[in-house]
Design brief:
The protein is α+β, with helices and mostly antiparallel strands and 232 residues long. It has two domains: 120 residues, Sandwich (Jelly Rolls), CATH 2.60.120; 84 residues, Orthogonal Bundle (Arc Repressor Mutant, subunit A), CATH 1.10.10. Helices cover 42% and strands 23% of the residues. A five-stranded antiparallel β-sheet has the order 1-2-9-4-7. 24% of the residues are buried.
Length: 232
């Protein structure tokens, strides 16, 4: 469903350094759409090159193996963007993007996007920083897949998730509790393996469920477990 935007790009992190006037001008050059939960936004087979700016909702970046197994790369929400790779290099899409909930996006054509990067170098720098972060994360995951067994990849993913809620007392809170299937798709294993690992960590009191959160009771110990298996 096509709709019009109204001063909504102020929440987009990539555009945070632009003036209100510059953001307002960009809004008039965007198309606006809403997607329902579970609706496909970008098909990997698509040749489109637009960039999408999320003003409401959440999406998942995902691909599928030849056997049909889902491999999730990231979940991103309000203020984030996606689709920039095709907009930059003109190549086909590198992944599918699916709405996890009702989602509203501003859609910027590749021509408008490239003009923005040229006219506003600080936005281009922010884009480069984000791409560098994606490369680093991808490198970490490649290392995990190459050097760790399934159980230990779950440990590493829990550690990554926990770092966002890290506390000064060496604990961390992951909220909401991660869905077993989501962790499995990120680390290329099964839901059963994830459930078994979490049960084992609970028995040794390394993780604990509290209401709608999963608490890591000893971040240092979890980090040591991941590091030990990476160097063996």
């Amino acid at each position: 469903m096509a709709i019009t935007g109204s001063n909504e790009l102020s929440n987009i992190t990539l555009l945070s350094d632009l003036s209100d006037a510059d953001r307002a001008a960009l809004e008039t050059r965007c198309r606006w759409r809403e997607y329902s939960a579970h609706e496909l936004i970008i098909d990997r087979q698509s040749t489109s090159q637009d960039i999408f700016l999320i003003t409401r909702g959440k999406v998942r970046i995902v691909n599928y193996s030849l056997s049909g197994r889902e491999v999730a790369f990231d979940d991103i929400g309000v203020g984030s963007h996606f689709g920039e790779l095709a907009a930059v290099d003109g190549e086909p899409r590198s992944a599918n993007v699916v709405a996890l909930e009702n989602t509203k996006v501003a859609i910027m054509s590749p021509a408008v996007f490239r003009s923005m990067l040229i006219e506003h170098p600080h936005v281009a720098l922010s884009m480069m920083v984000r791409m560098a972060r994606i490369i680093r994360t991808s490198t970490e995951r490649i290392m995990d897949l190459s050097t760790l067994g399934a159980n230990n990849r779950v440990y590493a993913e829990l550690l990554r998730l926990a770092k966002e809620g890290d506390q000064d007392d060496n604990t961390a809170t992951i909220k909401p509790i991660p869905i077993h299937g989501d962790i499995a798709s990120r680390v290329s294993t099964t839901r059963e393996t994830v459930a078994r690992v979490l049960s084992s960590l609970s028995r040794i009191k390394l993780v604990k469920r509290e209401a709608s959160a999963l608490v890591i009771m000893d971040m240092d110990r979890l980090g040591e477990m991941v590091e030990r298996f990476q160097t063996e």
